[in-house]
Specification:
Elements (H helix, E strand, L loop, with lengths): L6 H4 L2 H18 L4 H6 L5 H14 L5 H6 L4 H4 L7 H16 L5 H17 L6
Helix pairs in contact: 2-4, 2-7, 7-8
The structure holds protoporphyrin IX containing FE.
């Protein structure tokens, strides 16, 4: 019997997850649609890129790189220093949806990713509007 494929495998393993994260931050860096969340990040996106890659690796069932290096993600708590309202959530999802669409994933995988990310991004809101 073959093992069921993990989401990590469906995304193309390390190469696929890295490419998704790279597209996401390239969009954030260059799109007026994401200017407010870009301004929340440091000038260099290198560290953000590495951390999101490490997090998504474990989150999707691959090597738990983030956990090994930084411990439990406690994502909501780690986002508290940043003001995240609907606008910021929607800008984050704007970038991620486009990064997913550019990925040539199976449509069911793309849909699953979008749903899960919209739930996590909404959970990250720490401002009323
Ligand atoms: C809802 C809108 C969001 C905004 C505005 C936002 C913004 C930020 C900012 C400004 C940072 C700090 C950058 C850094 O330390 O390199 C950060 C870190 C991070 N974000 Fe987000 N984020 C959002 C949603 C998400 C979501 C949905 C995920 C996961 C799917 C995520 C995963 C991470 C991770 C893993 C880190 C690094 C945490 C750390 O170790 O400090 N973020 N985010």
């Amino acid at each position: 019997m073959t093992e069921p494929q993990s989401l990590y495998d469906l995304l193309g393993g390390e190469t696929g997850v890295r490419a998704l994260v790279d597209r996401f931050y390239a969009l954030m860096d260059s799109s007026p649609e994401a200017k407010d969340i870009r301004a929340l990040h440091a000038t260099s996106l290198k560290q953000s890129r590495e951390k999101l890659f490490m997090f998504l690796s474990g989150w999707s069932g691959g090597p738990p790189l983030y956990m090994r290096k930084f411990g439990h993600p406690k994502l909501r708590m780690r986002h508290m220093p940043f003001s995240i309202a609907e606008r910021e959530r929607d800008q984050w999802l704007w970038c991620m949806d486009r990064a997913i669409d550019a990925g040539n994933f199976d449509p069911a995988v793309a849909e699953h990713l979008k749903t899960r990310f919209s739930e996590i991004a909404d959970f990250m809101r720490n401002q009323g509007v």
